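#structure-requests
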Amino acid sequence: MAKSTNAFTCTACGASHKKWAGRCDACGAWNTIVEEAPLSQGPGRGLGAHKGRTVPLSSLATTEAPPPRSLSGMEELDRVLGGGLVPGSAVLVGGDPGIGKSTLLLQGAAAFARRGASAVYISGEEASAQVRMRAQRLGLADAPVRLGAETNLRDILTTLDAERPDLAIIDSIQTLWSDQVEAAPGSVAQVRAAAHELVTFAKRKGVAIFLVGHVTKEGQIAGPRVVEHMVDTVIYFEGERGHQFRILRSVKNRFGPADEIGVFEMTGAGLAEVANPSALFLSERGQPVPGSAVFAGIEGTRPVLTEVQALVAPSTLASPRRTVVGLDSGRVSTILAVLEARCGIPFAGLDVFLNVAGGMRVNEPAADLAIAGALLSAREDSALPPEAVLFGEISLSGALRPVAQAENRLKEAQKLGFSQAILPDSQKVEGAGGMGVSRIADLTGFVGEVFGAG
């Protein structure tokens, strides 16, 4: 006969017994022992017969105050964080080597510290003297930031527990090692263990922690993907080495909107905030030339105007080149196919080069019409109206589809001196603010109206 795996528990004191008895040996109560099934019947030992504590539950209608936030005074950083730093939050910051992650976080730590928050900067990649030299170059030597250089996870947690700062910066997570894990620093096991311990510490002690993460050659944060799920916010610091502009982009945020961006300019004195990125990205735009189109985009909650540049030239290769910088190459290929199939404008035998000026990266489908306009302008050697902005999504049938937040796009364009907008015919716009609006139903109509061909 199979042996029963059920447990016997006293309902009065919760003590476990191997078999039923009339009297509980732990509390002395009579007739309180009952038979209970184990929590798990899965493979292996499962959860066993021991029960856990009951978790208190509440309704969705409970009203709790929003988490308090601390402002750094760096408006671009506060914007990306969702309106400030939340105590006990864990933020993961990734970016290419040398892009300015350490500079940004050192400036951020100094800004928080000067506003009364206690900040600790732990460097695992650089010696303390190197961090001090950077602080002196940035004019931050007088900021009340505590500095340390350590890679032992146990020592770091002990130090943070003793200091109890409001903000702790770990640069970087790949350099930490735990004496409980038999693996080299930077390995998947070490990164996962270090991230878990630091995030748990942040939640338990109410310390906001920034973790710097290396990126792979594909641009993703290196290490196990579970690290991104552990933290509250994931931020990428983007930019091209040849451009002075840097984009701080939030791709995950439990305390605010995702896809929010902050714009910085790399100078000799560190990162300078850019309050009006649209004017900066269009500052080098001179006389109207073929292949240039201004796109009115939305990054998070901020409208941003960028210039899409195209060059179309005869190709000497059997397979023409398609070089795309700052845009989705798959999206560009789709637009080229729609132009050829629906409008009869071939790009076979032509090299196509596309770029977003200023090192900006545009991912939203609303840029389709601006991409098509830049391509057609370059191919026909005819400049678009210099006072016009474009936005709209192109379907595979060639029709133009409406996009969100059209009013905010038009307001930003009007603020920068643009007086005309080309947008889909079905786009609903409440108050264009005095701008001239050209509504176009499909891509064929756009070609006929703007370039005079049907």
